[in-house]
Specification:
The complex is a heterodimer of chains A (183) and B (126). Chain A has 183 residues and is mostly helical. Helices cover 78% and strands 0% of the residues of chain A. The longest helix of chain A has 23 residues. With 126 residues, chain B is an all-alpha fold. Classes of the chains: A mainly alpha (183), B mainly alpha (126). At the A-B interface, helix 2, helix 3, helix 6, helix 7 and helix 9 of A face helix 1, helix 2 and helix 3 of B.
């Protein structure tokens, strides 16, 4: 997509043209869903948050000023949605504790990342990723799995680029250490 | 030499690790997700028109503020000047009367036997 097309898309989006937004959805929904799956490890929650992300993005489309790419902007909204849902879950911790076992069983059977664990090495890598701190995990996820640049990751997380680079290198080092002891 | 080799092997490991992360299999996308997302987009043609107008006003915010500030200054200036002149006149008049009564009371300038003037001096000023 050239800069002229991008400008036209932005114009259409600001005019509230549904067709333009549908194209944006079709181009980005897989990436946003994958991001949500990695964050939540829950199919239904990932679907719900993906839908909320796109609904929220459409409702606030006039605030998108193309300073970042639309993919970065959507990732930022998705990340905020995930944080909000986590807070909401924490608030209902007592309720969740009662349903924990039930949830764990359901999660195990519906884990969308089960495909990743088919291969032994991939399973270990996946395990190693889960052992990371949340900020490192998200930095790794956005850069290596979602394919965003460090600058884009920094925009999504609202952190300096240097911090993101440092988080990534620290996370990679931890993964390397984790795997070298097991492989 | 050994250190160099170790460093090199470590770098390769990190690189291969990064490559492995990039190659992680993608999560399966549910078939219902796409139609669900497209169906959830509300038609917002009407909602966007006022939003643009609002942005236009927002851009002129600075000019409006500047005009308001200038207007307030002009208002203060006018009020100040319109009130100043009569108030000075009043003070002068008041001072004159004070001067008149005090001089009269002390009897420096006026004849004590002139009762005509005495009749017009207010009681409080005596």
């Amino acid at each position: 997509m050239g800069p002229k097309d991008r400008r036209q898309t932005l114009k259409d989006l600001h005019k509230g043209r549904r067709r333009a937004y549908e194209e944006v959805v079709l181009r980005n929904y897989k990436a946003v869903y994958r991001f949500m799956v990695y964050l939540t490890r829950d199919i239904s929650l990932a679907e719900e948050l993906t839908q909320e992300t796109f609904t929220s993005a459409w409702a606030n489309i006039e605030s998108f000023e193309a300073r970042a790419s639309i993919a970065t902007w959507l990732h930022r909204i998705a990340y905020r949605k995930f944080i909000d849902s986590t807070r909401c879950l924490q608030r209902n911790a007592a309720l969740i504790a009662g349903l924990k076992e039930e949830n764990n069983n359901a999660r195990r059977s519906s884990d969308p990342l089960q495909g990743l664990t088919a291969d032994e090495h991939t399973r270990l890598l996946y395990e190693a990723m889960r052992s990371l701190k949340q900020d490192e995990y998200i930095a790794i996820l956005l850069h290596y799995i979602q394919g965003l640049s460090f600058r884009q990751v920094a925009k999504v997380l609202k952190l300096p680029v240097g911090t993101v680079k440092w988080q990534n290198s620290r996370a990679l080092e931890k993964l390397r250490q984790y795997l070298s002891g097991r492989v | 030499m050994k250190q160099k080799r170790e460093k090199k092997s470590k770098r390769i490991t990190l690189k291969s690790l990064a490559a492995q992360l990039r190659r992680l299999p993608e999560a399966e996308i549910p078939e219902t997700l796409k139609p669900r997302l497209l169906a959830a987009i509300p038609d917002m043609q009407q909602k966007h028109a006022p939003a643009h107008q609002f942005r236009w006003y927002h851009a002129g915010d600075l000019g409006v503020t500047a005009a308001a500030v200038v207007f307030i200054f002009v208002l203060i200036f006018l009020i100040n000047y319109s009130l100043y002149t009569p108030s000075r006149t009043e003070i002068i008049e008041f001072d004159t009367s004070l001067c008149y009564t005090s001089l009269y009371q002390n009897g420096f300038m006026y004849d004590q036997n002139n009762t005509y003037l005495e009749k017009y001096v207010p009681y409080q000023l005596k």
